[in-house]
Amino acid sequence: MGARARQRLVVVSNRLPFVFKRGPGGRWRTERGSGGLVSALLPVLRDRGGSWIGWPGTAETGPDLDAAVAAAGGDVGFALRPVTLDARQVGDYYYGFSNEIIWPLFHDLQSLCNFEPAYWGAYKEVNRKYAKAALAASRAGDFIWVHDYHLMNVAAELRALGCRARVGFFLHIPFPSPDIYFNLPWRLTLLHALLQYDLVGFQTLRDRRNFIQCLRLLMDDVSVQGKGQVVSVTAGRRTMRIGNFPISIDYNAFMRQAAADEVAQRAQELHRMLPKRKLILGVDRLDYTKGIPHRLKAFRTALERYPKLRERISLIQVVVPSRVDIPQYRELKSRIEQLVGEINGNFVRPGGWVPVWYVFGSLSRTDLLAYYRAADIALITPFKDGMNLVAKEYCACSIEEECVLILSEFAGAAAQLQRGALLVNPYDIEGVADTIHRAFTMSDEERRSRMRRLRRSIRDSDIFWWVDSFLRAAIAKDLSAFPLPEKHVSEAVADYVPI
């Protein structure tokens, strides 16, 4: 990859890779953040050197917090640079612009947006703070990699500060089609901000196409060169690169941990608790984009349409708490619990069969892996998802390869996993119900064939492939030097179009 491949990396994300909380006695307690991004980038930063910039998760400041952040950075081998935010900034930038405007809009739920003008001012203000921190932490030759929808304006602020470093951006959520995006009052300003990056990465080809269509409809003199995974886009005087890089997981780590004795024993306990039936698993953060009420209705419909499923199948629905202080999310939680109660009330039978096992709470790593191991079918049906790593985690943990993945065609993962998963339209309640029956009656041979294909695809395009492909695209002198996808990852960069 040449000398430039060893350049230092400055990662900029909304949160630091560690969570800082007050412990007993008032001392700061440090917990490593979860997720594939943290797992993938920690060794890269340790190897290359550099910094990770983000909010430490608290409005408090002081020397003791600075010392805790510095100590956590020393343990992982690179610097952590905290960005402090006050309560107003957290409210207007994070809960406001990021999660009351961009999150619903980019998930095609524009009716849920609150286009409060003050939110945009706070978003620019906070993005400027992140840009100043990135500029202070970087030096000549560094590559600055900004992550996700909270920080789309960082490159524009960096350029305004005189920064000429190479800056990349990756959007972890979907990018909407023009008819949805055009609802945003600051639509043109935000496009100009994204053009200030040298490379913008999206999860899927569809997201990339939507972005280019928005450029063409809102700006003059837009041209696109190239037909591969990464293309060059010129808009006015600005030329940058755009690519689709489907994020993934640490496949080998999930597979090894799922095979541990403790996980296997816990999975066996679940089967002993729920004997003589196949287990369906749903694992979701509490969010209206996940389609949990529709999923419950589909499961109820499956029991109604196929009586033979009764007492032979159970749905374990895990809901991880999220934003429970927001009324809309509290209402969603109540609706889920109401549906669970109705289904169990209608179908529960003497002798112990409970159709839906509802778990509201965060799971330990061991328990999550055990649920993955125990489940015969995963039911993952979001209305819209940038990727959905639960689908990939489930497949990595299905080491017996006798399981079935039912996946929403509107999840970004559908483009990669369409040849092994059973794809469904989450709005089609009867169609999802029929697919549950199909998964239940599927032969062992077909189950193994499909799951082997899924696991092979995820293994060959894991989180480390994702990091490497993005950085290669960022530093390549020209697009011809950027390697075309290998055969085993061709599905990962393909498109999926619902029939």
Helix and strand layout, with pairings?
Elements: E1 9-15, E2 18-22, E3 28-32, H1 36-48, E4 50-55, H2 63-76, E5 79-82, H3 87-106, H4 117-137, E6 143-147, H5 154-160, E7 166-170, H6 178-181, H7 187-194, E8 199-202, H8 205-218, E9 222-225, E10 230-235, E11 238-244, H9 251-258, H10 261-273, E12 278-285, H11 292-305, E13 313-320, H12 327-347, E14 356-360, H13 365-374, E15 377-380, H14 389-397, E16 404-408, H15 414-417, E17 422-424, H16 429-441, H17 444-460, H18 463-475
Parallel strand pairs: 1-4, 1-6, 4-5, 6-7, 7-8, 8-11, 12-13, 12-15, 13-14, 15-16, 16-17
Antiparallel strand pairs: 2-3, 9-10, 10-11
Helix pairs in contact: 3-4, 4-5, 9-14, 10-13, 11-12, 11-16
Describe the 3D structure.
The chain is α/β, with parallel strands linked by helices and 499 residues long. The protein has two domains: 3-248 and 466-493, Rossmann fold; 251-460, Rossmann fold. Helix content is 45%, strand content 18%. It contains 18 helices and 17 strands. It has helices at 36-48, 63-76, 87-106, 117-137, 154-160, 178-181, 187-194, 205-218, 251-258, 261-273, 292-305, 327-347, 365-374, 389-397, 414-417, 429-441, 444-460, 463-475; strands at residues 9-15, 18-22, 28-32, 50-55, 79-82, 143-147, 166-170, 199-202, 222-225, 230-235, 238-244, 278-285, 313-320, 356-360, 377-380, 404-408, 422-424. A nine-stranded mixed β-sheet has the order 5-4-1-6-7-8-11-10-9, with helices on both faces. The chain has a six-stranded parallel β-sheet with strand order 14-13-12-15-16-17, with helices on both faces. A two-stranded antiparallel sheet has the order 2-3. A hairpin with a 4-residue loop joins strand 9 and strand 10. Helix 9 crosses helix 14 (389-397). The longest helix is centred in the N-terminal third of the chain and has 21 residues, at 117-137. The relative contact order is 0.10.
